[in-house]
C-alpha cells in the first residue's frame, strides 16, 4: 500500500483516553453501546473512505531501473576501448600522411582533424525543437498518436527509441520491459512481435488513447514521409550488431529519408556498427556522463552530434563550447522547463545549443515566439 493511501474499509474507531472500545470487548472490561452521535460519525467516515477508494487513481506501475552499476561499467569500458581505437587510427593516419600533430583538447599530442559542423536539422536562428518520444505531454509516448501530434505541432524533429523483439522485429518503445507503457508484462527482448502488438500502449495515458499499439519502425517512417519538414532522431537502445542494424538502415533508405535521419545511441559499439553499415547516415553519441576522452571517441566514430543531458549542461555549461569547437552539434535531452530553455539558448557565449529535446514541443515552440 502506498504511504499516503487510505484503507478501502473503515477502521473501527477507538474511544481515545478510554480502556474500552466502541464494538466488542477488551480483557477485563465491558463494552458500552455507541451513542447516536458516534454511530453517525462512523457512517460518515465510511462513506468518505469508500468514496476515496472508488475515485482513487491506480498507482503508477513500477519501473525497472535501466542504469545498473554493471551497465555503467560496461558503458565506461565501451568508451575507453573506442578512445584507444580512435587514438591509434589518428596516429597512423598522421604518420602515413606526414602530418604534424594537432593537439586535441581531449588528448594532447593526438592527431585529430577538426570536422566542419554538419547540417543535421539545419542551423536556425534558434535551437531546433525535438519532440521527445513524440509529443509525449499530450499523447502516450512512442506511439503513432504522439508522433503525429509532434508533426502537427510543428516540431523540427521527433526523437524515438528502437528495440528488437524476440524474433528480431524493430519496434518503438523506450523501456526494456513493457510494464510501464502497456497493459502487458515482461521484457521486450523476450516477447514476439505478435505478442507485443497485442498489447494496449495507450490506455495507461487516458481512455481516449485505448487501442494504440507499440509501433513498427515502418509505420513511423510512413508518417514522416507525409511531413517533409520533420526530421528523425532515432535512438538504438542497447548494443546492436551490424547485421541487426542493416534492416533498420535499409528501411530508412527505402523510405527516402536518409537525409532526414540521425541515428544515435549511448553505446559507442552501436554507433560504430551504424557507421560501418550505413556511413551515409548521420550519427550521434548520447552522453549520460562526460568521459575525459569523449572528443576522441566522437572523432573515431565520425559522429555529427554529441548529445549530453540537460543536467550535464547545468553542471558544466562549458561542455557545449568544447563540443562546438570540435565541430559537433549539441542536442540536449530532456528539458521541459522554461528556465532551462533559456539557459540552453545562452550557453557557449550566446550561441546556444543546436537542439532542445523536450516532452513539450508545442510549448517550446510557443516560448520561442514570445
Give the proportion of residues in helices.
Answer: 25-40%
Question: Roughly what fraction of the amino acids lie in strands?
Answer: 5-15%
Pick out the low-confidence regions: 1-36, 49-65, 99-118
Question: How many individual helices?
Answer: 12
The named CATH superfamily of the largest domain? Phosphatidylinositol (PI) phosphodiesterase
The CA-CA distance between the termini, in Å, is 45 Å
Q: What's the helix-strand series?
A: HHEHEEHHEHEHEHEHHEHEH
CATH topology of the largest domain: TIM Barrel
Oligomer: single chain
Number of domains: 2
| Alpha-beta classification | alpha/beta
What this model shows, in words?
- The chain has 370 residues and is of the alpha/beta class.
- The protein folds into 2 domains: 1-48, no CATH class; 69-368, Phosphatidylinositol (PI) phosphodiesterase (TIM Barrel), CATH 3.20.20.190.
- It is built from 12 helices and 9 strands.
- It has helices at 36-55, 69-97, 144-153, 193-197, 217-226, 242-254, 268-277, 294-301, 310-315, 318-325, 338-346, 361-368, and strands at 128-132, 157-164, 170-172, 231-236, 261-265, 282-286, 305-307, 331-332, 355-358.
- Strands 1, 2, 3, 4, 5, 6, 7, 8 and 9 form a 9-stranded mixed β-sheet that branches.
- Strand 2 (157-164) and strand 3 form a beta hairpin.
- Helix 3 runs parallel beside helix 5.
- The radius of gyration is 27 Å and the shape is globular.
Amino acid at each position: 500500500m502506498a504511504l499516503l493511501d487510505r484503507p478501502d474499509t473503515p477502521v473501527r474507531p477507538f474511544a481515545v483516553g478510554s480502556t474500552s472500545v466502541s464494538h466488542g470487548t477488551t480483557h477485563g472490561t465491558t463494552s458500552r453501546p455507541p451513542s447516536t452521535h458516534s454511530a453517525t460519525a462512523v457512517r460518515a467516515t465510511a462513506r468518505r473512505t469508500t468514496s476515496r477508494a472508488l475515485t482513487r487513481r491506480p498507482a503508477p506501475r513500477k519501473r525497472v531501473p535501466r542504469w545498473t552499476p554493471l551497465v555503467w561499467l560496461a558503458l565506461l569500458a565501451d568508451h575507453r576501448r573506442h578512445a584507444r581505437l580512435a587514438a591509434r587510427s589518428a596516429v597512423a593516419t598522421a604518420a602515413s600522411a606526414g602530418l604534424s600533430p594537432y593537439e586535441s583538447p581531449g588528448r594532447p599530442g593526438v592527431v585529430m582533424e577538426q570536422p566542419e559542423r554538419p547540417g543535421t536539422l539545419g542551423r536556425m536562428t534558434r535551437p531546433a525543437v525535438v519532440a521527445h518520444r513524440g509529443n509525449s505531454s499530450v499523447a502516450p509516448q512512442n506511439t503513432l498518436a504522439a508522433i503525429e501530434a509532434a508533426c502537427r505541432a510543428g516540431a523540427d524533429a521527433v526523437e524515438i527509441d528502437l528495440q528488437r523483439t524476440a524474433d528480431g522485429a524493430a519496434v518503438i518503445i523506450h523501456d526494456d520491459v513493457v510494464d510501464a507503457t502497456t497493459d502487458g508484462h515482461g521484457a521486450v527482448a523476450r516477447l514476439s512481435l505478435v505478442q507485443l502488438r497485442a498489447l494496449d500502449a495507450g490506455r495507461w495515458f487516458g481512455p481516449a488513447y485505448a487501442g494504440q499499439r507499440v509501433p513498427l519502425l515502418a509505420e513511423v517512417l510512413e508518417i514522416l514521409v507525409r511531413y517533409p519538414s520533420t526530421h528523425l532522431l532515432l535512438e538504438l537502445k542497447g548494443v546492436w550488431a551490424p547485421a541487426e542494424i542493416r534492416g533498420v538502415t535499409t528501411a530508412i533508405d527505402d523510405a527516402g529519408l536518409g537525409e532526414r535521419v540521425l541515428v544515435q545511441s549511448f553505446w559507442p559499439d552501436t554507433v560504430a556498427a551504424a557507421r560501418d553499415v550505413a556511413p551515409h547516415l548521420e550519427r550521434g553519441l548520447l552522453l549520460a556522463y562526460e568521459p575525459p576522452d569523449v572528443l576522441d571517441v566522437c572523432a573515431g566514430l565520425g559522429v555529427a552530434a554529441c548529445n549530453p543531458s540537460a543536467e550535464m549542461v547545468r553542471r558544466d555549461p562549458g561542455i557545449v563550447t568544447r563540443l562546438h569547437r570540435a565541430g559537433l552539434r549539441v542536442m540536449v535531452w530532456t528539458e521541459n522547463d522554461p528556465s532551462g530553455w533559456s539557459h540552453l539558448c545562452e550557453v557557449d557565449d550566446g550561441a546556444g545549443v543546436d537542439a532542445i529535446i523536450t516532452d513539450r514541443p508545442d510549448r517550446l515552440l510557443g516560448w520561442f515566439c514570445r
